[in-house]
Amino acid sequence: MTFRVSRRNFVAGGATLLSLSALGTSALAQETRLRLLWWGSQPRADRTNKVSQLYQSKKPGTSITGEFLGWGDYWPRLATQVAGRNAPDVIQMDYRYIVQYARRGALAPLESYMPAKLNLDDFDKAQIEGGSVDGHLYGVSLGANSAATVLNTTAFKEAGVDLPTQATTWEEFGRIGAEITKAGKRKGMFGIADGSGGEPLFENWLRQRGKALYTADGKIAFDVDDASEWYDMWAKFREAGACVPADIQALDKNDIETNTVSLGKSAAGFAHSNQFVAYQAMNKDKLALTNYMRIKPESKGGHYRKPSMFFSVSAQSKAVDLAVDYVNFFVKNPEAALLLDVERGIPESSAMREVVAAKLDENGKVALAYVSGLGDLAGKLPPPPPAGAGEGELMLRNIAEQVGFGQLSPSDGGKQLVAEITQILARG
User: Fold this and answer.
1) Residue of 243, 219, 248, 221 whose CA lies nearest to 231
2) Which domains does the chain carry?
3) Residue 67: which residues within 8 A CB-CB, separation 6 or more?
4) CB-based contacts of 129: which residues, under 8 Å, 6+ apart?
């Protein structure tokens, strides 16, 4: 299913809160009720629900209901609910979409609640700015993470292949992948996942070349040669047997459960650091994290410390004050921090980082150590993607599939990607 979040299913213009005087007793009753919507796996849902239960225990009379979906289903659902004026009170929001939702009036500005009701005094300033659009705060970062390569260390050991390091290049990684596939220690397992449709991978690769996905003013920042070379690199990996073939990669629905590592189809795949806890929970083999590979040994890394996701408050909410209080509790309460651990990323609050760090289990320490140890691999956070970036991500993935199945050549795929994204951005 192709979904365009900024078009058909999204209501243009802003949403206005109704006054309590107009709503009467119905609105007063709803003031103690909150509805949450987020994407993620069952472990994330379990942690989120425990925090909600904790909040309810401290706020008697408050009722909280939550719903979660996989990434691919989440955005159509949210857009439909916003369009139908049935948006949840608290919305999990992504860096990729926050600009368009904010500018269409779907999110409530939060800066007026600071610092009395929303205390972000020990947050990194850059992370607060990451949730801001046009001078207003629309998203509170729930944690910091970075893109990562997840490795099945057991499968590597069985194949007699050394794990990649921070210095490993893409060319070397291709050879590593081919060696694992050729070893054939596990039936149907290939070396690495096909990352050609992964936007974080492509962006990282571009940043190493001194480029970007988008300019600060919302234009495409790469050209046909960049895109064609990207698709060609992965075509060569497929030809060499280094990565999974297209039919196996198509099983990946962009969630943890269907990632080729979790399916046992590859020894290496691509994720975000905050997902490691859930990945390890789903895999009996010992996993590890490392960075995305370098283009050349001397290349600067293309990573950055990113808000893993935000909590935003719907402009349609009849309980904005309560929603803000819940968000503040989520990011600043020590008991909540321990329940959440690092599943959504490293806490942005320095005080909560200390609370969590003292209690982290082995898997949590892996995620923390990875983000903390990126060194020269990490650069500046890029500006928020423009409206249409979500469609651009889908286009990258769709064209990658076509190239993978031999329906397009890498060069034609590169031309089509640039043309399509340029057209998407021009529509605004």
Assistant:
1) 243
2) 20-144+307-360 (3.40.190.10), 147-304+388-427 (3.40.190.10)
3) 35, 36, 37, 38, 88
4) none
Residue position matching structure tokens 């020894």? 267
Distance, CA of 300 to chain centre = 22
Query: Residue 22's pLDDT is what?
Result: 34
Higher pLDDT, 416 or 300: 416
Kindly report, residue by residue over 49-87, the tens digit of the pLDDT.
999 999 999 999 999 999 999 998 999 999 999 999 999
Say how many CA atoms lie within 13 Å of 380 toward its Cβ: 8
Contacts of 365 (CB under 8 A, 6+ apart): none
HSE-CB at 341 with a 13 A cutoff on CA atoms is 22
Residue of 345, 314, 346, 341 whose CA lies nearest to 327: 314
Reported as type and span, the H/E element at residue 392 is helix 389-404
- Is the pLDDT confidence value at 144 over 80? yes
Q: Which amino acid is at 10?
A: F
Dihedral sign (CA 270, 274, 278, 280): positive
pLDDT value for 30 = 44
CA distance 402 to 241: 18
On whether the CB atoms of residues 285 and 154 are closer than 8 A, the answer is yes
* E strand spans, 115-263: 132-133, 136-137, 140-141, 144-145, 147-152, 190-192
Q: Is 143 exposed, middle or buried (0-12, 13-18, 19+ CB in 10 A)?
A: buried
Give strand ranges (E) for 136-281.
Answer: 136-137, 140-141, 144-145, 147-152, 190-192, 266-272
Angle between helices 389-404 and 224-239 (to 10 degrees): 40
Other Cβ atoms within 10 Å of 85 Cβ, number: 10
Please give the structure tokens belonging to residue 253: 């629905």
Residue with the larger pLDDT of the pair 157 and 300: 157
Interval 83-94: pLDDT, tens:
999 999 999 999
CB 183 within 8 A of CB 159: yes
